[in-house]
Amino acid sequence: MDQDRINRFADATGDHQWIHVDPARAKKESPFGDAVAHGFLTLSLIPCLTKAVPVRPRPIPGEDGGQLWAESGPVHGSGEGQLPRPSAEHAQGSARGRGGLQMVSEVTIEVEGQEKPSCVAETVSRLYF
Predict the structure, then answer these.
(1) What is the pLDDT of residues 87-125, one digit of tens each?
(2) From CA 17, how far away is CA 23, in angstroms rounded?
(3) H-helix or E-strand containing 108?
(4) Collapsing DSSP states into helix, strand and coil, what is residue 25?
(5) If phi over 0 gives left and psi between -120 and 50 gives alpha, with beta otherwise, what is residue 94?
């Protein structure tokens, strides 16, 4: 993740909190020792990051899906060693009218050199054929 992308996301959302956009201050005052990406930026990259990720099937009987997410660890803005690695488990799929399919998946975004994942999200996608 590079600082330019973080700054552009801050401009798009109006979230210019110093922990994201002021690397010098973040190095001195942040508990992470660097500027970090917005949690919603990491979350918004899921479709891009998971395009080529094989989805592992994981049945969850009776569960109806949702859109919950939790940011667990930071994605630093310096870009050094910060290569997000996605993985996804298919929770359930169901047919939708007119050639559609709804899939609920659990997506985990990990970063090299970081013990905890940066993002764990349950996503709901609809595909139409």
Answers:
(1) 666 666 777 777 788 878 888 888 877 888 888 888 888
(2) 11
(3) strand 100-111
(4) helix
(5) beta
